[in-house]
Amino acid sequence: MNSQTAERKCLNCGEPLKGRIDKKFCDDQCRNNYNNAQKATTTNLIRNINNALKKNRMILQGFIPEGENLGKTTKDRLLRAGFQFKYFTHTYENKKGNQYFYCYDFGYLELDSDWYLVVKGKES
């Protein structure tokens, strides 16, 4: 059994482990560092997508005049403002078959000639 404990090393820093046979880390700091490193890639991806969604929402909101629920803009204006069309939270298809893309409570509908209708969703 001593030969097994000598071979066990901390998953984070590689130091030899002493104590319980099922021990994986030498201390709490190594455990935290290891787990944080494992989650870092996924966390950064999610954070970047959430930031893009929030930015898209703010851009859409900016194209609707104060006190109104609708606005109109061009694709070029959206792109110049930094809008990323690949990020949206959900879609809605109305009875006519038009598909709206939403970033939280603000959405857009593609019209003719690169024009877009921007809408504020109704709050439930």
From TrEMBL:
It comes from the Bacteria. This is DUF2116 family Zn-ribbon domain-containing protein. Pfam families: DUF2116.
